[in-house]
From TrEMBL:
Pfam families: LRR_8 (PF13855). It comes from Dendrobium thyrsiflorum (Pinecone-like raceme dendrobium). This is Leucine-rich repeat receptor-like protein kinase. InterPro entries: Leu-rich_rpt, LRR_dom_sf, LRR_Rcpt-Like_S/T_Kinase. SUPFAM superfamilies: L domain-like. It comes from the Eukaryota. PANTHER family: LEUCINE-RICH REPEAT-CONTAINING PROTEIN DDB_G0281931-RELATED, PROTEIN KINASE DOMAIN-CONTAINING PROTEIN.
Length: 431
């Protein structure tokens, strides 16, 4: 019952009985209004939607909102459940290189409560500092912010995360790799390529016993590789090209018997190339370049399964060894800018799958073998160099060579046959 007291309306509690037929009773402007069961249905649906929203704990919802603000992620739709795989949270069939996904797992038995386990935001032009609030997602196993404009150092708050996959490739991350990353004992992939990181690698990284991918290319790292890295026996990919390391290439690399790819190009490390590389029976991609020191041709017998071999500017002298004839799976071979001498003879005649071969900048002599005729191979280097070797007439029909328009001026006195079917390219012939 409503009474007016002191010029104001005052509600007095009264007993209002609603029938078993669902009816909502309200006081509104002094009138009793009855709403039908239809309104209750909408209200009930609202409660259902509200329960869906809270499938993530409230603190994880707030963490996602803070993360979104920190990196300018503007299209997460918080009016729906982040675990729903709705388009703003998971984008299927995206363009190559682009990825947008937030995944949940570790759900309760009834599925009412889940947790964020993966955040992958690739190539989205995100800008901002790495958010410490990632640490408020205690079940987060994957962070991948590849190819954005994220800057700052790696937050110390992240030390508590159970990370398995961690990629900040192609951003502007600075500072040093923190030693506490060595506590990520379940970490399998560490990708920090193309950033502005510097300093020595902490020895604690040698505690990452589950690590398979170690990718630090194109940074400013210095110092020697820690001896503890000998423990990384599950490594499949060790890629540290384009850095400022020093010291010799470590012998402990021979412990990495699961290794598939080793890239030390322009890493700053010094020779000689370890003889123990021949123990890496699964290796199919070996790339070493620009190392200081002189040595003979490395002992690579036993790893004839190699498909890619680069030993460029490594101070290698002597003749090309006969065992290279056994590398029948090679697709690309680069021995350029060494001190190799002698003739090519028949050393490479079994390399039928080799698409690209670089022998530039050595002291090789003698005739070009018949099996190396240009019409049968895909070679590359400046054509003028070839003219010096083979005379003033050659045939590049059936070649697959890149076009270099300026190379026509390098032909010298060579005569070019152009009456081929398809294209006759001016390009690189690697001698």
């Amino acid at each position: 019952m409503l009474t007016r007291h002191g010029g104001r309306l005052q509600n007095e509690v009264s007993s209002i009985t609603c029938s078993q037929e669902v009816v909502i009773c309200q006081n509104f402007g002094g009138d009793m209004v009855k709403h039908s069961g239809v309104f209750l249905l909408f209200l009930a649906l609202g409660f259902v939607f509200q329960s869906v929203k809270t499938r993530l704990p409230p603190e994880e919802i707030e963490a996602l909102k803070t993360i979104a603000r920190a990196i300018n992620k503007t299209n997460w739709d918080f009016s729906v459940d982040p675990c729903s795989q709705e388009l703003s949270w998971v984008t299927p069939n995206a363009l190559v290189g682009y990825e947008n996904s937030v995944w949940c797992n570790n759900c309760s038995n009834d599925g009412s409560v889940c947790h964020v386990t993966s955040i992958v935001l690739k190539s989205q032009n995100l800008v901002g500092m790495l958010p410490p609030e990632m640490a408020k997602l205690p079940f987060l196993q994957e962070i991948d912010l590849t190819r954005n404009y994220i800057y700052g150092s790696i937050p110390k708050e992240w030390a508590v995360l159970p990370l398995v996959n961690f990629s900040l490739l192609g951003n502007r991350i600075s500072g040093q790799i923190p030693s506490w990353i060595g506590n990520f004992t379940n970490l399998r992939n560490l990708v920090l390529e193309a950033n502005q990181l510097m300093g020595s690698l902490p020895e604690q990284l040698g505690h990452l016993n589950s690590l398979e991918l170690f990718q630090l290319l194109s940074n400013f790292f210095s110092g020697e590789l820690p001896d503890t890295f000998a423990n990384l026996t599950k490594l499949k990919y060790f890629l540290i090209r384009s850095n400022n390391f020093n010291g010799k290439i470590s012998q402990f690399i021979q412990n990495w018997t699961q290794l598939l790819r080793l890239d030390l190009q322009a890493s700053g490390l010094q020779g000689p190339i370890p003889s123990g590389l021949s123990r890496l029976k699964k290796l199919d991609d070996l790339r070493i370049s620009d190392i200081v020191g002189n040595s003979g041709f490395p002992q690579l017998q036993g790893i004839e399964q190699l498909q890619y071999l680069t030993l460029r500017n490594c101070g290698i002298s002597g003749v090309i060894p006969k065992f290279m004839d056994n590398f029948v799976n090679l697709k690309r071979l680069d021995l350029s800018f060494n001190k190799l001498s002698g003739s090519i003879s028949t050393t490479f005649q079994n390399l039928l799958h080799t698409n690209v071969m670089f022998l530039t900048g050595n002291n090789l002599s003698g005739p070009v073998p018949d099996w190396m005729l240009l019409s049968k191979n895909n070679m590359c280097d400046y054509l003028s160099k070839l003219c010096i070797i083979v005379g003033d007439f050659f045939d590049i029909c059936n070649e697959v060579l890149k076009i270099f328009p300026y190379s026509r001026s390098l032909l010298g006195n060579c005569t070019l046959i152009t009456t081929c079917s398809g294209y006759a390219f001016l390009g690189l012939i690697c001698f």
